[in-house]
Amino acid sequence: MNKKQIYLPGLKKQTEFLFNKLNLEGFNILIIGSGTSEISKMLQNKSGQNIEIIVEEYESLLSLKLELTNSKNTSIKLMDFESTDFKDETFDLVYAQGSLSDSRRKKIIKEIKRILKSEGYFCIGEIVKLEEEIPNFVKDIVESSNLSPLNKNEIEKYYFDRNFELIDSIDLSNTLADYYKISSEQLSKSEKNLSENEKSYYKKLLNKISHESNAYLKLGANRYIGFLALLLKNIK
User: What is the CATH number of domain 13-132+146-174+224-234?
Assistant: First the structure.
């Protein structure tokens, strides 16, 4: 795989959005979710501090450890996103890109508020619904991926109601077509160079991306599903 690419919805656009809004020097940062090795390098370079990453799957833990073998400034841990081991008000910034748009969002956000400092920042990229009513084939994709997307027009209010102040937001829906194309191609190429454990993990990921890609690029799911990045400030 090309290690310099970010194989997540939003691609590099979410990090670029963040860097344009904040000076991260000296920030204690937590990244939530898999596929974030390149993001961790970029954030570490900006902050100059050790970066924490948490994932919930053992395969993701192994994959990140392999990709960050030579990194001495990143700690990767297996934790439940709803109940982490971190102390209250540990982080200046929590970063999540396409990893929290599921049915547990409410509990996860509550945990993020606990571990985020007062006046700390939360940069999140969310899969969103572009229309209130979505067709059955899109519902099938959403359910199979365990997603619970908010409506694009309601997401800012959702976080306002949980005492987050909106700094800015950006619609990155136009990255999804490239995300599905690039990720599918790169994952297919990478399979022959992976260990058996990695093949098992990436095979599931490839099948998921292939299914979503077909629906998005060929069946018209792009009319109903988008991606929005927000930069929020935690108000205790």
Answer: 3.40.50.150
